[in-house]
Write a structure and sequence with these properties.
- By secondary structure, this protein is of the alpha/beta class.
- 34% of the residues lie in helices and 18% in strands.
- It has 9 helices and 8 strands.
- The termini are far apart.
- 45% of the residues are buried.
Length: 235
Amino acid sequence: MLYKNIYRDYYKNMKVPILAPSLLAANFSHLAEALGQIDGSGAEWTHLDVMDGNFVNEITFGPKMVKDLRPLSQSIFDVHLMITQPERHIEAFVNAGADYITFHHEAGLHIHRILGSIRDYGKKAGISIIPSTPVSAIEDILPFVDLILIMTVNPGFGGQKLITQCLEKIRTLFSLREKKGLSFLISADGGINPDTVSQVREAGTDILVAGEAFFKAPNKTAMAAILKGTGHNET
């Protein structure tokens, strides 16, 4: 297919992707230190997974945690809402200091309204889909989003193996973005590590969300370079 040639040509000449380490994999008793590690590694964003124990089984943190962390970092705060009724909590995360707010297509009913609400607050609006949701489910809203987060594992906890079939969604989104002349960013989250990251980058991903691969690395600056494709696997 034509788009496969397009994304391969893009990969050969693409800019270095953005790295967004996920605080879900950090030690929650040392989050200030974790933010310092992100800022000092060359990673540009911080990914914050908000889980409510309903949309996914786990519970993490809410807007107060984001607010308390915001003064401690210069990175972009990429807040990923894995919660039901996300529209009820948009204002709270805006006030907490989120730069991007991403919610799940599977959890939202009035998608356009939620996206518009986020943008009306002056924030960037993102939509996420789980592995079983096809790209076709969100194709109509592509003009209204700033970011699309492709879950490459089933959401809820870290340390899972990347579902390689999900990379086809990234390729499809890349093709649709080119075809429609849109500018949304494509993010991938789940199972990204030195063994899998090259194929994730090659699919056309703009933002790499990595948790355990980053926080378990002894040398986080070296790991950031490996994941972004600017270093060698020598950690």
